[in-house]
Amino acid sequence: MTALRAYVAGPLFDDGERWWIEAVERVVAEEGLVTFLPHRDNPPKDRFNVRQIFDNDRRGVDECDVVVASLNGIITDDGTAWELGYAFAKGKFLIGLHTDWRRRFEHEVVNLMLECSLDRLVHNLDDLRTALREFAAR
Question: Residues 129, 133, 136, 138: is their CA dihedral positive or negative?
Fold first, then answer.
């Protein structure tokens, strides 16, 4: 049986964001999924390889079974939002992870277009493990 593949999405603009997304990736990998992590699985970005990184990331979404996306912050990272929208259009299973207590709207955790696209929205790493196990058992 082929291992399930996960694309792990989220902002990567500072050490804290990279630390968090790497912690998320470890949880996903511990659940037995093969992971694609954009900042690990691409060359360091420079002005000459932006298109290569875009193509690699898009291929990562194309080849995955599930996208796990960190949605923390008042506004979801625009690259993460694009990855989720693209994955939704491709029919991928989408898990959003939101551990941030801040909310933009009273009845929405994140933007309604993102929230309604998700198959699961979880709020901690233990719930992420449960969601991944349920996804794998489908």
Answer: negative
Task: Provide the CATH number for the domain around residue 82.
Answer: 3.40.50.450
Domain that holds residue 131: 5-137
What tens digit of pLDDT does each residue of 90-99 get? 999 999 999 9
- In which region does residue 28 sit, left (phi positive, over 0), alpha (psi from -120 to 50) or beta (all else)? alpha
Helix H or strand E segment including 32: none
| Helical axes 15-30 vs 125-137, angle rounded to 10° | 40
Residue type, 42: N
Report the chain's C-alpha Rg in angstroms: 14
pLDDT attached to residue 85: 98
